[in-house]
Amino acid sequence: MPLLGLAELDGRYAAAILASLAGSFAVQLAFPAIGSQFASYRNASNRTKRDWAIHAVALLHALYATPVAISLLRSEHPSTVALRNDPILGFDPRTAWFATVSIGYFAWDAIVSAMFYGPGFILHGVVCFAIFLNSFRPHCHGFAGIFLLWELSTIPLNINWFLDKTGQTGSTLQMINGAALLLSFFGVRLAMGVWSTYYFASSLFSDRVRAKMAPGTPLLYFAALMSLNCLNVFWFRAMIQSLRKRFDKSAPAKSKQ
């Protein structure tokens, strides 16, 4: 039976989403058992210890989402191939099961961002959660793999944060990881982001799609994606400035990212 007015969201998918949400909080709450193995964690403030746990959850999701995205983009499974031919209105149960994990994670991300971080992080979490959840309407389901690939850059992003906290600021390792961060972020979020936005818009605003969506809905989805693109540009600029400071001993950098 469909839930929340989403035609393809039944009890099985909903349970998987809730399990992912609960799992994200479970990892966050259980992290002190792992973090306590590091002296820099044991000596940190309660706020920094909280951030260790949050970055750990984000890193785990990125390590999950990246190979899933690549798998979906390369898959020759008949249902996935059919979805590529109708990326806005189509639906693929195989893709949906993979997406449930990310929907639960983005729900966690939105909640944690609202509790501890600023508007940009809240916007990112809410928009990602809403877009992926609405893929069960189904709307834009065929773009799951493309947008999950953006998580590739989250891997070196969080590694960079952990390097800062474990005394590796300005190290050769951080320099290599920083290069990987900038290259991956530029590649999957900016360069690929321009292409995916064009592909998304050309599919979304076709006569066939607009005839089957409520008035204004395509524009709403496009605005949501553009908000993420704007955040990516803003964050990329901030990353460049932050990485520069990390190799300037007189100006250490501090940020969630």
* Share of helix, binned: over 70%
The SSE order reads HHHHHHHHHHHH
Biggest beta sheet summary: none
Mean model confidence by pLDDT: 93
Number of strands: 0
Strand content: under 5%
In short:
The chain is mainly α and 257 residues long. 74% of the residues lie in helices and 0% in strands.
Structural write-up:
- The protein is an all-alpha fold and 257 residues long.
- The chain has one domain.
- The longest helix is centred in the C-terminal third of the chain and has 33 residues, at 172-204.
- The protein is built from twelve helices and no strands.
- It has helices at residues 11-30, 32-35, 39-42, 46-74, 78-85, 93-116, 119-133, 144-148, 154-165, 172-204, 207-212, 217-246.
Main traits of this protein?
single chain; 257 residues; mainly alpha
